[in-house]
Design goal:
By secondary structure, the chain is an alpha/beta fold. The chain has 12 helices and 13 strands. It has 2 domains: 224 residues, Aldolase class I (TIM Barrel, Alpha-Beta Barrel), CATH 3.20.20.70; 94 residues, no CATH class. The chain is 37% helix and 17% strand. The strands form 3 sheets. The protein has an 8-stranded parallel beta sheet. It has a 3-stranded antiparallel beta sheet with strand order 7-11-10, with no helix packed on it. A two-stranded antiparallel sheet has the order 12-13. Helix 5 links the parallel strand 4 and strand 5. The longest helix has 22 residues. The chain binds flavin mononucleotide. Flavin mononucleotide binds next to strand 3, strand 7 and strand 9.
């Protein structure tokens, strides 16, 4: 059977060059371990969680897999305690997003662990190599969820690859929902891809059924890039499916915070926690109320998501199709 092997696989000890995006509450220990047991890299989204919740997630996930698993941490929050927890628990891959990872790199390496870091430009990639980062994720503007920069992957990936000069693996984030996207990024010179939106549309994803139904029917033109969903994280643009909260805010003339329509409306609850309009929260399975008004994170690849399937089937198809596409490209060369 044919396989795709890149230097990302060698660096991380994984079988296929795919990294699961850390998808917030959509991701459970079962979800992450299914991805890792398949041979891709599962990632725990610990970014902003309380330490005891992080600890439970790590323990439960590592109990379900002995394959590599990453912990994703968002550097707009102080991550010292979470880094220490991950290292103490034996997490061997720490993935940083949004900020400066340099204060942590030496310590992580001293524990025999590796650092993944997300960038959005060739200059940031160069700095990351100089800092000692082990693997770069280059995130394009078409990606779902919070987005660092404004360059789409087709232009970003070759620029980052040129900047990195083969010193460490480079992984695309954004624009990959099937084998065509994976193959195209390998042709651009990337060593693998982060996949988010496509995996939200899986049986294992812990999201509200109505969110999943929207992912299946939405077109590539149905997402917007906005900072309006900022309760919980300011100045952090996000790509979401356009919805009533966004449309009503636009119709009101895009007023600033404090003057936005329905700003203090409680839309739903996450457990006991009230979720108000413009919150960061995505629709979780048990939520009731006006769930449509919540942020539905999705990348432009949503137009390629047409069904809900088991994770392993999605990954199988992605790899199989990428192999076929690459084979077909090779036959174009006479
Ligand atoms: C629901 C959701 C939550 C996300 N949360 C995080 C996160 O906590 N940390 C992070 O580094 N990236 C996060 N991302 C961004 C992904 O890492 C990745 O860049 C993106 O999913 C790639 O684009 P795609 O969704 O079109 O595949 C999130 C994306 C989504 C869709």
């Amino acid at each position: 059977m044919k396989e795709i092997k890149t230097k990302l696989c060698d660096s991380l000890g994984i079988k296929v060059p795919i990294i699961q995006a850390p998808l917030g509450v959509a991701v459970t220990p079962e979800f992450v371990s299914t991805v890792s047991n398949y041979g891709a890299l599962g990632a725990m989204p610990l970014g902003t969680w309380e330490l005891d919740r992080c600890e439970k997630m790590i323990d439960a996930t590592l109990a379900l897999t002995d394959k590599p698993v990453a912990a994703n941490l968002i550097l707009d929050w102080d991550q010292s305690a979470r880094v220490d927890l991950c290292l103490r628990k034996g997490v061997k891959i720490i993935w940083f997003f949004w900020g400066d990872p340099s204060p942590f790199i030496e310590k992580i390496h001293a524990h025999g662990a590796q650092v993944i870091y997300t960038v959005s430009s060739a200059d940031e990639a160069k700095r990351a190599v100089d800092m000692g980062v082990d693997i770069i994720v280059a995130q394009g503007w078409e990606a779902g969820g919070h987005i660092l920069g404004k360059v789409a992957t087709m232009a970003l990936i070759p620029a980052v690859i040129d900047a990195v000069q083969g010193k460490i693996p480079v992984v695309t984030a954004g624009g990959v929902a099937d084998g065509r996207g994976l193959a195209a990024n390998l042709v651009l010179g990337a060593d693998g891809a982060v996949v988010g939106t496509r995996l939200l549309s899986s049986y294992e994803a812990n999201i509200h059924k109505s969110y999943q139904a929207k992912l299946v029917t939405a077109k590539e033109t149905d997402t917007v890039y906005t900072q309006v969903f900022d309760k919980g994280w300011k100045n952090a643009p996000v790509r979401i499916l356009r919805n009533s909260t966004y449309d009503n805010w636009v119709a009101a003339g895009k007023p600033d915070s404090g003057h936005r329509p329905g700003e203090n409306d409680v839309i739903t609850y996450y457990g006991d926690i009230p979720i108000t309009r413009y919150s960061l929260s995505i629709p979780a399975p048990t939520m009731t109320g006006d769930v449509e008004a919540l942020a539905h994170y999705a990348g432009q690849t949503v137009g390629l998501v047409n069904d809900v399937k088991p994770l392993t089937e999605i990954l199988d198809e992605m790899i199989g199709d990428a192999i076929e596409r690459i084979d077909r490209c090779q036959r174009l060369v006479l």
